[in-house]
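Exercise 7. Given the encoded structure of a 77-residue chain, write a plausible sequence.
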């Protein structure tokens, strides 16, 4: 009998994630995308954009630690 394999999208880690995507942050912390972008714009959470030189589009990543600290501080948007 053949054993089931986990889906390829499953990430197993024993250490906390340092940088997460907007989609992951939204799902993990139950915060809407627009709220995350507002917090980044107000520089209340750290983010960076990974992109190849010359490209206009890239991948926006959020510092999970800065988001946790913001939420723990009890600050409001």
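Solution.
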């Amino acid at each position: 009998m053949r054993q089931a394999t986990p889906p390829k999208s499953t990430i197993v880690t024993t250490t906390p994630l340092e940088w997460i995507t907007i989609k992951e942050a939204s799902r993990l912390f139950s915060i809407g995308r627009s709220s995350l972008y507002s917090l980044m714009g107000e520089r209340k959470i750290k983010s960076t954009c990974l992109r190849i030189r010359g490209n206009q589009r890239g991948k926006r990543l959020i510092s999970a630690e800065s988001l946790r600290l913001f939420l723990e501080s009890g600050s409001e948007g």
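Remark. Residues 29 and 68 are 9 Å apart (CA to CA). Students should compare their own answers with the one above.
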